[in-house]
Structures are given as structure tokens and as C-alpha cells.
Amino acid sequence: MADVAQFLIIARQYEQAVEYADQMMKSVPEGMNECRAVYFKLHALFHGKMVRLSQGQLQEGVDLCMSANESLLANAMRTDMATLEIEQGRPAEAVRLLEEHYAEVQGYEYPALMQYFNVLLAKGYYRLGDLAKSRRYALATIASAVENEISEPLGQAYDLLYRIESQQGHATEALAYHEKYMAADKGYLTDVSAGALAYQAVKQQVQTKKNEVDTLNRQNQILQLQRELDHKAMETSRLYIALLLTVLVSAGFWLLRTKRSQLRFKRLATQDSLTHICSRQHFVDEAEQVLRQAARTTRSVSLVLMDLDHFKLVNDTHGHVIGDLVLKRAVAACQQHLRRNELFGRLGGEEFAILFPESTAAQAQERSERIRQAIAATPLWGETRHVVISASFGVACTDRSGYELRQLMIDADNALYRAKRDGRNRVIYGDDMDAAELEANALREAAPRERLADLPH
Ligand SMILES: Nc1nc2c(ncn2[C@@H]2O[C@H](COP(=O)(O)OP(=O)(O)OP(=O)(O)O)[C@@H](O)[C@H]2O)c(=O)[nH]1
């Protein structure tokens, strides 16, 4: 930072130099003296003529540097103090101050500072009218200059010598010094301009770099924004996908529910709720279909009606719960003797129907007999005693009755009626009836017959 402040002073950019000096003051390490920063600041303020500095302020700076053992910087500040004294018309004060520290400065072997001490002493003595001393220090200024190096004190020294020689009437010497003065002054001004130009070039480079950094920052911001936008777009698509999935899942769920309801309704319509075998209507529909197909191939189909015996008594004796259980057990016993393609339905109450799709009357009789035995052998205990179960069977076959379900039902019902009348717990096939049976049957058929009620005529 000190190097930058010094460069700025050389380039005569005093305002920036003051800013750097201020920053230097803020960053002085713990326990260190601010001398260097104060020197740059006072020097920049003084030469930039930004404020009117007082001797007191400069003296404070000198004291600070002395306490930090920075006598070179203190003496550099003394040149500013001497300049101020001369400017304010106190050349004697300036001379006293410079003479007092002259030897000390000589000891540094620092030509630049020595030049300033010499030229200021030359100026001071010139103002005091001591031309001899003024000449001596002006010549010392020239002597202390580094060879081929042009400086501000060098030009001022030649100017003084020109004036002294002029006053003393030495026109030739005066002219020679004046020429040297002009050359030195021109060279110095060129140096100053070069410094200023260098500064401007550096400033320009810094500005270019700053612009590049700004551009990169802006590009970064744009990229950042782009990334945020992409992120937002991704989030939005995710939201859409989630929404779509929700809609699809809801639709799927709704379809599933609808399907399940449909299946439930279908089951309710086609299944008997207690025994889970075919409902009456479903049995009738399926049986008619089987009969239509069988009619085309003229194969034998048998229909068996089965009715539990004295079921009212079972209910009355053991209660309806046991009655229901008896119904389920009887159904289970039947199912054990039925094949997959054989239709089994509950027509109502304790009445059931079985359709054997490929069976003669004899085969149906034989199968019914096995079922009858199975039902009779079904063990069941009521709350207090054994429940006796049996069933009566009436068999009809297409060989005799034809392929109309209604007729098959009538014939099977008649056979069942006979089975009941003949003592129950038996299987009867056919309509071989005597005169009394025919009369009883006619009377029975005259009464409304529930199991035939919804069959097509
Ligand atoms: N527990 C129960 N009883 C039923 C059900 N459906 C009908 N019943 C009863 O079954 C009985 C049928 O009695 P009936 O028609 O007189 O016949 P039955 O007593 O079996 O006499 P037969 O058929 O002549 O041997 C009635 O008491 C009905 O209340 C049912 O789902 N559960």
C-alpha cells in the first residue's frame, strides 16, 4: 500500500494518495506506529494543496515519526515545513530548521532528500539576501543530483543561479544557467507528464480489468439466474408429473372401486347370499343356456329338485341359526359330489336344483342317491341334541321331458312330490302315477307353484 501511495504522489494523484494513506492508517498492525501513513497523507495534502496545513500539523507528523525512529521520514516532512515557512515569508525559520538537520540528512546518502534540503536552503538564503550562501547551496543541489537524472530541485537550483548571476551582472553565466534551467525544467515537466501518463495507463488497465470483472460477474449472475430458472422449470415439471400421477392413481382407484362394486352387485345378483351357490335367477338363466346347447346335440340333460325334509321342524326345534347352518351343511355335502360343469342353485327356502349337463336319468338318479346319503350322514349338533337332516329328490330328464326348462321343472317337481309323499329321504324319477296320485297332482298343480312362477311358458 505504501508503494501505491508513493506512486500516486509521484504521478501527482494526490486525492487517491490520501485515500491510500487513510487505508494504511486503518491497517497499521497492533503496536506499530502510523508514521509512514501520516507522512504520505500530509505530503499528499500539502502538495495537492487540498487543505491549508499548519506548521503544527506537520510538526505533529515529525514528532510521530521521530518517536518511531523514522528520522528520514521526519526530515522529509521537514522539507514540507521549510517550504511552508518560505511560502509564508519566514525564510529565516526555514533556514534554521534545515541547517539544524542538514548533517543528519547528509548521513543518509539519499540524494533525492539531500537535493531538497540544498535547494530549500538556497531558496531561503536567497530570500534572506545572502546570495553567496544561496549560490553555494544551489551548486550543492546540482552536485547532489544523480547523474542524468532530472528532478524538480535541479531546475529550481539552476533558476536560482540564473537569478543570482543576473543580479550580479554576470550575463554570460546567467544565460548559461538559464539555458540549463530551461532544459531541466522541460525535462522535469516531461517526467511529471510521463508519471501522469503512466498513472493514466495503469488507471485505464485497472478500469479495463474492473470492467472485465464486472462483465464476468454479470455473466455469472446470468448463469445463476439461468440455473435458478432451470431448477424452477424442473420443479414445475415434477409438480405436473406428481399431479398427473395423482390424477392417474385417483382414476385407477375410482375404476377399481367401480369394478369391485360391479363385481359385488353381480355376485349379489348371481349368488345366494347364505349358501353362495347360484341364485334362483342365475340358475334358471344358466340352465336354459345349457339346455339350448344340449338341444342342438340332443345329448341327455337331467334336472334334480332337492328339498330338505321337515325343515320347519328343524327351525322350530333348534332355531333359525341352526336352520341356516343345516342349509349350509346340506349345500356343502352336495358340492362334494358335484363336478365343475354341473349347475347347483338355491330356488328358495330349503329347495335346491341341480342340472347334470351330460347325464341320463339313471345316472342322475344314482348321483342324487349318493348326495342324499351324504346329506343324511352329515353330523350336526344343535344346542341340546343331534339334528336329523335328510332330503327328498325328484329327478327329470330331457329324454322324457324334452329340452324346455319349465317342463323339466314340472316333471322333477312331480317326482319330488312323490318322494315327499312316499316318506321323504328318497330319490324318485318319472311320473308313473296311479289314479289317486294323478288327482292329487292335478289339485296341487292348480295351486300357485312358486318354483315355476318365473319360468317361461
Ligand atoms: N333357517 C331358515 N329357514 C328357512 C329359510 N328359508 C325358509 N325357511 C323355513 O323353511 C321352512 C319350510 O317349511 P315347509 O315348507 O313347511 O317344509 P318342511 O317343513 O321342510 O316340510 P317338508 O318339505 O314337507 O318336508 C319354513 O319354516 C321356512 O320358514 C332360511 O333361509 N333359513
TrEMBL record:
<dbReference type="InterPro" id="IPR000160">
    <property type="entry name" value="GGDEF_dom"/>
</dbReference>
<dbReference type="Pfam" id="PF00990">
    <property type="entry name" value="GGDEF"/>
</dbReference>
<dbReference type="InterPro" id="IPR029787">
    <property type="entry name" value="Nucleotide_cyclase"/>
</dbReference>
<dbReference type="InterPro" id="IPR050469">
    <property type="entry name" value="Diguanylate_Cyclase"/>
</dbReference>
<feature type="transmembrane region" description="Helical">
    <location>
        <begin position="239"/>
        <end position="256"/>
    </location>
</feature>
<dbReference type="GO" id="GO:0052621">
    <property type="term" value="F:diguanylate cyclase activity"/>
</dbReference>
<feature type="domain" description="GGDEF">
    <location>
        <begin position="299"/>
        <end position="432"/>
    </location>
</feature>
<dbReference type="InterPro" id="IPR043128">
    <property type="entry name" value="Rev_trsase/Diguanyl_cyclase"/>
</dbReference>
<keyword id="KW-1133">Transmembrane helix</keyword>
<keyword id="KW-0175">Coiled coil</keyword>
<protein>
    <recommendedName>
        <fullName>diguanylate cyclase</fullName>
        <ecNumber>2.7.7.65</ecNumber>
    </recommendedName>
</protein>
<feature type="coiled-coil region">
    <location>
        <begin position="199"/>
        <end position="226"/>
    </location>
</feature>
<keyword id="KW-0812">Transmembrane</keyword>
<keyword id="KW-0472">Membrane</keyword>
